[in-house]
Amino acid sequence: MKVGLVCPYSLDVPGGVQNHVRDLAEALVDHGHDVSVLAPTDDDVTLPGYVVPAGRAVPVPYNGSVARLAFGPVSNARVRRWLSEGGFDVLHIHEPAVPSVSLLALWAARGPIVGTFHTSMTRSRAMSAAASILRPSMEKIAGRIAVSEHARSTLVQHFGGEPVVIPNGLYVDRFSDTPRSPRFARAGGTMVFLGRLDEPRKGLEILLGAMPAIVRAHPGVHLYVAGRGDIDAARKSVPRDYRDSVTFLGLVDEQTRAELLASADLYVAPNIGGESFGIILVEAMAAGAPVLASDLAAFRRVLEYGQLGTLFPVGDSGALVEAAVELLDDEVRRGMLRKAASVAVRRYDWSVLCLDVVRVYETVAAGAGRVGEER
Amino acid sequence: MEWVAIAAVLVVLSAVLLSWTAGRVDRLHHRVDSARAGLEAQLMHRSGATLELAATGLLDPARSLLLLDAAHQARASDEPDREVAESDLSRALVASLGDGAEISRMQRHPDVWDLLAELGNACRKVELARRFHNDVVASALHLRRNRAVRWFGLAGHARMPTMVEMDDSWPPALP
Fold it and tell me: What are the E-state strand segments in chain A?
């Protein structure tokens, strides 16, 4: 099939939506489909051959943070040209409601259109107002996909209907093929946390608070913390005597991230809320790290209600200590979790998810003609 | 004189808005029709694959007969009973093909395996087609509740579209 993908954010900036679009594009190419990705780009970066630049992205405040978006006459003209010259069997727009090339493409296109919604937002008056402005455009989308149950319920609240859920994917082999790294694997046990240091909902504070008790019960254990944020402030929150048991790595690249997870005897996700899916847990499981996560709805689903990892009550530092020590002491249990998880994560592999996405394309494109430009 | 001009502008503007909205209603109705046709095609595909599977003789006679009957009922049923008959077919499939171990053993018979894969694909597509159909219906119903659409009869004589409510679950073990 000839597929046109639209990404609202610059592909050269890392981010959940961008990674998703890139991975999906590559999976589709592997399956023999003809793919073109339209995305904002800065002119001086080199990008994969399937990317068509849609103009420069400018930073603007949107939805509570600063996003780099592309809009205006140049982008609009490029979107229209790409649509009319592409000859696509299906147009797949990511985040169709984001005021960037996504919304421009939705506005300008006709024919079989699929939309994937990544964000989950709580209902607000601003969003309700936006929903009524967006409705005539949204009506054009013939197949709606949400990446999580959370994103799906946001979508249903605002627009009704029955979107399907196809979760975020990953290339499992990239993680499972990564060996344990001597740099991180410790004889006394390696614990890993990935996430922003200063974002309270990631729950690092709870984990750091639990560290002294974990170290006392299980001497020699070491915690690696990787993520952006103020390292000095985070280190100071660990009692002085225990600071040698924690290493802050700052922001790490993808290779280091995979090595860390492959070397972990325990991956801890102490989040206290705001997670819609938990791709990081799937990555940890793919790399072979036993998972200990807080009992959030999203995590519970990914860990299949405790079958694939251990859950502890949200924000409960004492329960975290207890569960962590128990797991660190029990190699057999960790081995079982590893084994169960390595089988279960296969269904998040792009090679599988890609088939689900193509099925959506086929359903939408059946008898609908080609994508073209709205007259 | 000014008032006449303003009134004329208002009339023109509302005419444009009304005709644009009428276009939206019309397009949505077309999309409902084509989504409905797509769903019909997937349902036929699914019952067809079920009939073929029942005819291979690889399943025991009890299940073959069950599937044959459910698929046949689904194909023969007419409008008011259609959703019930198709839901029955879903349930018959789930009940007959629920044993994951048995299904993975069928990989040894490549032609049956292909048939199972085709059935699995058809089942998943029924679910997608039904959801996407109901999505368009939801948009159409929302627009038809719009005051302008009701007062000016912009929907013409088009029938009020209806959702398709049926059990579209499928045996998770299917390839």
Answer: 2-6, 34-39, 51-53, 58-62, 65-69, 90-94, 109-110, 113-117, 143-146, 164-165, 190-194, 222-226, 246-250, 266-269, 291-294, 310-312, 372-373
